[in-house]
Write a structure and sequence with these properties.
Length: 292
C-alpha cells in the first residue's frame, strides 16, 4: 500500500536550519575558492581543497538536518551508516572536481560550465545516495520528471555560485551568492523529496541501520566542527574578507641594481633647499667663460 510521506514533522524548524547549514557551507566554500584565485599556484590547491570540503560538508549537513523532519506513516526509518557517510565523500569529491576546474581554468566559458555541471551532479548524487541509504519496510519510487528538475536546479545553482566566486568582488558579494546557493540547494532537496513515493510491503520495521536520532551526534560533531574551523580561517584572513590580492614582492634579478627596482620621481617644492643649492651652481657655470 502507498503510505503518507511527511517532510515537515517539526514544521519550519528543520527547513530553516537546513537552509542555514547550506548557506554556511556555501559562504565558506565560495570565499575559499575566491581566495584561491588571489594566491600563487603553490597555495591554490590547499584553498580549493578547503572550499570543496566546506561546501560538501554544508550540503551534506543540510540534507540530514532536513531528513530529521522526514517521516513515513506506519513504518520507522533507519539509515545505513556506510551509505550515509559514503554520500558525504561523494559530495566532497565531486564538488572538489568542479571547484578545481574553475580554480585553475577560471570562472568563465567552458570551464565554468564544466565545473558547475560536475558540482551540481555532486550535490544531486549526495542527495539520492543518502536516500538510497534509508531502510524501511517498503519500496521507494521516484517521478522521473521531478528528479530531472531537481538535478537541473542543482546544476544551475552550482554554476551561478561558482561564477559569483570567480568575480572576487568582496565579502558581501560572496555572502549574497551563498544565500542564493543555499536557497537553490535546499530547493533541490525538497524538489527531490517531492518526487518520492513510498509503497509499504508490510508492517514489520527494518532491523538494520541506525535511526535519524543516532546519526545526529556524528553529523553535528564532524561536519559542523569542520565548518567552524573553516569559519575561523576566513575570519582571521583579511584578504579572504576583503577579496583583494596581496601586494606581490619585488623580484630581485642578478645584474640589476637594487635602486632601479622601484623607480620613484621626487618632486621638490619651490622653497626646498635642493633647488636653492642648484641655482648658485648654475650661475657659476654660466659666469666661468667671463672670468677667463
Amino acid at each position: 500500500m502507498q503510505s503518507t510521506v511527511d517532510g515537515f514533522s517539526y514544521g519550519l524548524v528543520t527547513p530553516l536550519v537546513a537552509y542555514l547549514m547550506a548557506c554556511l557551507g556555501g559562504a565558506l566554500g565560495l570565499r575559499c575558492t575566491a581566495r584561491a584565485m588571489l594566491v600563487t599556484r603553490s597555495w591554490r590547491p590547499g584553498w580549493l581543497a578547503l572550499g570543496s570540503a566546506a561546501i560538501g560538508s554544508g550540503i551534506w549537513t543540510m540534507h540530514f538536518v532536513a531528513m530529521m523532519g522526514f517521516t513515513i506513516e506506519h513504518t520507522p526509518i533507519r539509515y545505513d551508516w556506510l551509505m550515509t557517510f559514503a554520500s558525504l565523500a561523494v559530495a566532497v569529491v565531486m564538488v572538489g572536481v568542479g571547484i578545481f576546474i574553475v580554480g585553475y581554468r577560471g570562472a568563465r566559458g567552458t570551464a565554468l560550465f564544466t565545473g558547475g555541471t560536475v558540482t551540481g551532479l555532486g550535490i544531486a548524487s549526495m542527495h539520492y545516495l543518502g536516500m538510497a541509504g534509508m531502510h524501511l519496510d517498503g519500496q521507494l519510487t521516484y517521478n522521473t520528471v521531478t528528479v530531472a528538475a531537481s538535478v537541473v536546479i542543482a546544476m544551475v545553482a552550482a554554476t551561478a555560485a561558482l561564477w559569483a566566486a570567480g568575480q572576487v568582488r568582496g565579502f558581501l558579494w560572496s555572502v549574497g551568492a551563498a544565500l542564493v546557493m543555499g536557497l537553490a540547494v535546499t530547493g533541490m532537496h525538497y524538489t527531490g523529496m517531492a518526487a518520492l513515493e513510498v509503497h509499504l510491503t508490510g508492517t514489520t520495521g527494518p532491523t538494520v541501520g541506525g535511526s535519524s536520532a543516532e546519526l545526529l551526534a556524528p553529523m553535528l560533531i564532524g561536519p559542523l566542527a569542520f565548518l567552524l574551523l573553516a569559519g575561523v580561517v576566513v575570519l582571521f584572513d583579511p584578504l579572504m574578507v576583503m577579496g583583494r590580492p596581496a601586494v606581490a614582492p619585488v623580484e630581485r634579478k642578478p645584474g640589476i641594481p637594487a635602486h632601479t627596482e622601484v623607480p620613484r620621481t621626487v618632486r621638490h617644492p619651490a622653497h626646498h633647499p635642493a633647488r636653492r643649492a642648484r641655482r648658485p651652481l648654475a650661475h657659476r657655470r654660466s659666469r666661468t667663460p667671463q672670468n677667463r
